[in-house]
Amino acid sequence: MTKRALISVSNKEGVVEFAQALVELGFEVLSTGGTHKLLSDSGVAVTAVDQVTNFPEILGGRVKTLNPMIHGGLLAKHDDAEHVAQMNEHGIEPIQVVCVNLYPFVETISKPDVTMEDAIENIDIGGPAMLRASAKNHQYVTVVVDHNDYATVLNELKTEGTTTLETRRKLAAKVFRHTAAYDSYISNYLTQATGEMYPENLTVTYELKQNLRYGENPHQQAAFYQKHLGSDFSLASATQLHGKELSYNNIQDGNAALQIVKEFEMPAAVAVKHMNPCGVGTGTTIEEAFDKAYAADPTSIFGGIIALNQEVDSATATKLSEIFLEIIIAPAFSQEALDILTKKKNIRLLTIPFEQAKKDAFNVVSVEGGLLVQEPDRFGFADAEIKVATDREPTEAEWEALKLGWAVVKHVKSNAIVVTDAQMTLGVGAGQMNRVGAAKIAFEQAGEKAQGAALASDAFFPMGDTVEAAAKAGITAIIQPGGSIKDQESIDMANKYNIAMVFTGVRHFKH
């Protein structure tokens, strides 16, 4: 039986050497288009596919391998007498090795000026057909879609004369993963182009970013996958300048910090522990913003994650270096800041392009047996139809504090209460089963600083008890969604204590 290999690749890394090695092992190499030209120009003995099909490439290359002379050779069972007889009858020879990768669709649609015509022309048809046929018939065919597998295939061919069934099955599985991802990119691109938000089938493709040492706990295995065409404002796209590899919990906390800090245009710093903010500060400089974030909760920040929305300078770096932190995330670090912070061996320093912070994306959360998909909570203070519900309106300083609280509270696990002044969080009550409990935690943390401060609640007050507790803690202004059947009870309680309370009309639950 003549040994034949079919090679047609868009990624030509290592393909000349691979083809030449196959020739030296006694294979006849078949090829098409640009791959055929490259191999021929490189001195590799190669046969054009149209010499096998006896039919020229047509329709601008759209049809060249979709032919029984090719697919018969890919799909035939070599030990099936009926298959062998039909192949002999039609002059079809088997193909034992297939090396194919696909038109660069993803690279094409990643270009900022891509047109629909360009995208459509880079949808491969013949390539996936050959890959799927070969992978289906992996009992007899070795199919290679990744140049990183060339060495494995050649080694087995040289030492054993053939590849093992185990290797062929692994390569076939990789092919189906590859074609599934390829089709996913195409379907998602066209779905977005037609404006369909929630299609009847949702296929989400992620690429392995790294294997993690462990998950939430050391007894759980984990890996980090990256959405290929997602926002660069992501831990998956971060540049790590220094420190240990990120862990599962680092990534979760770092993402939470990024989602909060992107709320602010002014210099801002966010400290996060266990996916909740323990301190948020703003200022005229990034150093002042960090000072505020640190002062908000100097205990909880220990071992936390810090995200800053401006370059870290030497003054800020000096202060950051004085406490134990797991990660510092920023748009950039000055050289002086790097010199200071890299003296700490294990701290992770990450840079992320903050100009990508507003890029649209969907939230995808896994549940047992399914996925929940929703658009992000982009609703901010500027979007709200603010209604002052009480007799007294907020002062200018109280308005600023309310805006800060409203920006932060939507990132705190419900039930959530956040106490702030105009520049920093003073107390955060997160993840409680009732709102009064969340408020008590926030007031206890704020202590004396709650006097004259503002309170933000992620959802309405079902009764006036939280307002009364706030008044006793010293709160003078409250922002909440409103909408309870007992809103009047809360309004009356606020009026009783001369608290200014405003309604936004929108809640910020975070589960």
Main pleated sheet: 6 strands, mixed
Helix content estimate = 25-40%
Structural class computed from helices and strand pairing: alpha/beta
Provide the spatial order of strands within the biggest beta sheet.
8-13-12-11-9-10
Low-pLDDT sequence parts? none
Span between termini: 63 Å
Radius of gyration: 31 Å
Percent of residues in beta strands: 15-25%
In words, what does this structure look like?
This protein is an alpha/beta fold and 511 residues long. It has 18 helices and 21 strands. The strands form 5 sheets. It has a 6-stranded mixed sheet with strand order 8-13-12-11-9-10. The chain has a 6-stranded mixed sheet with strand order 16-21-20-19-17-18. Strands 3-2-1-4-5 form a 5-stranded parallel sheet, sandwiched between helices. Strand 2, helix 2 and strand 3 form a beta-alpha-beta unit.
Topology record:
Layout: E1 4-8, H1 15-24, E2 28-31, H2 33-41, E3 47-48, H3 49-53, H4 68-75, H5 81-90, E4 97-100, H6 105-109, H7 116-121, H8 126-136, E5 142-144, H9 150-160, H10 165-193, E6 207-212, E7 222-226, E8 239-242, H11 248-261, E9 268-273, E10 276-282, H12 286-296, E11 304-308, H13 314-321, E12 325-330, H14 335-341, E13 348-351, E14 363-367, E15 370-374, E16 387-388, H15 396-409, E17 417-420, E18 425-429, H16 435-446, E19 454-457, H17 465-473, E20 477-480, H18 487-496, E21 500-503
Parallel strand pairs: 1-2, 1-4, 2-3, 4-5, 11-12, 12-13, 19-20, 20-21
Antiparallel strand pairs: 6-7, 8-13, 9-10, 9-11, 14-15, 16-21, 17-18, 17-19
Helix pairs in contact: 4-8, 8-10, 12-13, 13-14, 16-17
